[in-house]
Amino acid sequence: MTITSAMPTAKERPRRTRTKRKPSNRPALKLSQLLPSHIDLREPLKAVLVCEDCKTWCPITGVQSKVQKLVPHHTGKAGVADAVHCRGSNRRVEFDMTIPEWRQALADAHKETSSRRPTAVLPKAFSRQTGQTLRARAERTPAGRVADWNAVLPRVADVDGDRSRMPAGDVPLDGPTVPLTTLRPERPPR
Question: Domain tally for the chain?
C-alpha cells in the first residue's frame, strides 16, 4: 500500500505540558539561588526541588519544553478536606546552571558541612592518677596479672588470719555469743 496525498497523516504535537492554570506571576525561581541540597537533578527528566513556600519536594514539569514550572500542589497533607493550592504552584523555574555545575555545588556544600561536624569523640579530662592506672591496665598481660595476684596472696592470707582472731580482753556479758564457724545451709535430700 502506497501513501498518497489523500491519506491523512498525524501532525507532530507540541511537547509542552498543558494546564488550565497559567504560570504564576511571581518571579521565576533560579536554580543558582537555591541551596544545592534542595534540588535533585540526578534524573533530569524527573527533576524535583523544594518549594520555597510550603517546603515540600515538588516535581518540575515541562523539562523538555520552553517553560519549566513547578507542579500545582497543595499546602496541606494528603486526605485533608480543605485543600488549598500553594502560592508556589505553577511558578516558573529557570535552569541557569547545568547538571555538572549542580553536582559540583552539591559536592562543595557537602564538604563544607562535613568540615563543621566533629569527627572525633574527645575523651573526658581525667586526673594524673587515673591516666597512670589506665596506662598500666592497658600494658598488663594475663601472665602479669597472675604474677600480681600471686604477690598479693600472702597479704590477703595475713588479713584473713587477723579477722579470725578474737580480740584480747573481757568477753561481753550480755547478748548472744558470736559463732566462730561458718554457717552453711543444708540441702534437702533428693
Answer: 1
Residue 104 lies in a domain: yes
Domain assignment present for residue 40? The answer is yes
Give the range of the structural domain holding residue 51, as residue numbers without chain letter.
29-116
- C-beta of residue 58 within 8 angstroms of C-beta of residue 122: no
Q: In this structure, what DSSP letter does residue 42 have?
A: S
pLDDT tens digits for range 127-159: 888 888 888 888 888 888 888 889 999 999 998
CA distance 69 to 2: 43
Question: pTM for this one?
Answer: 0.50
DSSP calls for 61-115: E-TTSS-EEEPP-BSS-TT-SS--B-TTTT-EEE--S-HHHHHHHHHHHHHHHHH
pLDDT higher than 80, residue 21: no
Q: Is residue 124 part of a domain?
A: no
112 against 4, higher pLDDT: 112
Average pLDDT in the chain = 80
40-41-46 Cα angle (round to 5): 95
Structural domain contains residue 91: yes
